[in-house]
Amino acid sequence: MNNSTNLNIRIDKNVKETSEKVFEDLGLNMTTAINMFLRQVIRVNGIPFEIKADNVEKEKGE
Q1: Exposed end of the chain (fewer CB within 10 Å): N or C?
Q2: Going by C-beta distance under 8 Å and a sequence separation of 6 or more, which residues neighbour residue 19?
Q3: Helix axes 13-25, 30-44, angle to 10 degrees
Q4: What is the pLDDT of residues 1-52, one digit of tens each?
Q5: Does residue 14 contact residue 20 with C-beta atoms inside 8 Å?
């Protein structure tokens, strides 16, 4: 039984194209890469990399 679903997201065109090139170099496609990310989210029960508020404040010019 197929247990998949569709996910529609909006991302910056340049981000999509650039990341697709990286994934291609790794032998992956976008779907596989996103599935890998989501499985890591489940595995670590959170975002699988560090996110710092300091970076957001710098981008805002604060």
Answers
A1: N
A2: 30, 33
A3: 90
A4: 789 999 999 999 999 999 999 999 999 999 999 999 999 999 999 999 998 8
A5: no
